[in-house]
Design brief:
The chain has 309 residues and is α/β, with parallel strands linked by helices. Helix content is 37%, strand content 23%. It has 3 domains: 2-184 and 254-263, Survival protein SurE-like phosphatase/nucleotidase (Stationary-phase Survival Protein Sure Homolog, Chain: A); 187-246, no CATH class; 269-309. It is built from 7 helices and 13 strands. Strand 6 (126-131), helix 4 and strand 7 (161-167) form a beta-alpha-beta unit. Helix 1 (14-25) packs across helix 4 and helix 2 (74-85) runs parallel beside helix 3.
Length: 309
Amino acid sequence: MKILVSNDDGVFALGIRALANALAKAGHQVTVVCPDRERSATGHGLTLHEPLRVEQAEGVFAPEVTAWACSGTPSDCVKLALDALLSDKPDFLVSGINHGANLGTDVLYSGTVSAAMEGVLEGVSAIAISLLSGYPNFQPAANFAVELVTELEKQPLRLPVLLNVNIPPVEAAKIQPPVITRQGVRRYFDQFEKRVDPRGRIYYWLAGEVMEEEDAEIPVPAEQASSSPSRNALSKALIEVSQQFMTDVQAIKQNHITITPLQGNLTAYTALTFIDGWKKQSLQNMDQALKSTARTDKIVDKEEKSIKR
């Protein structure tokens, strides 16, 4: 298969080298387009106010891998690869191997996951793969990525989702079987260190510490099942899913490889019926307020034109 590889740790990161070389060794046609330096936690950012520059990265990967280093974000790299650098659309996109976890709400900030999502938005099947900090060998993660791509080649997802994969930080023999998980919550104690530079100016350095909980997940409020049949059915379905699948945060603690399907649609479906019931009076009030403001604006506009005359 033709596979596009990207990341957010930069072209010289050990993770992307292990991944691209392993995929090439397995017989795939691999093209790397990734940032020319570390771009972690850039989310789905795009470069709009300066040009993007690319250079071929020679001597970094195996000889059969074609590699480009881009001055932009991970999402820039994927968009540029698909729209300008590649002559043909790739069969698959693999982003990683990230140096550190992308669990729970990490995915909202992750450049690794955003690069994979960019592929999904362009109709390319994608995987984001990360190795938790604390284990220096990326080869088990790279080997798993090759096996996962092989299985997806046999049985394509055919869904607008990416698979977010996290590998536990232990040697291969201690890794537990892969499990399908749902997204949990990974909370942080955000701590800004206050420092003073040599010129006496104050600056801050973000150094958040992760707070992981065994039951860290987005809850399904029980009261949502009380007001309408449709809400009741949705809530029951969500509760059943939560009972069937562990969160990625829970499963990784048991040394499982976690595979979490993610989508770009962020609609909070459990809130739709609440908003629908809330709208009748509240939205009417807002609509009336807007119309009243519009009438006032017209009066002011007429007065200003009259004064100018």
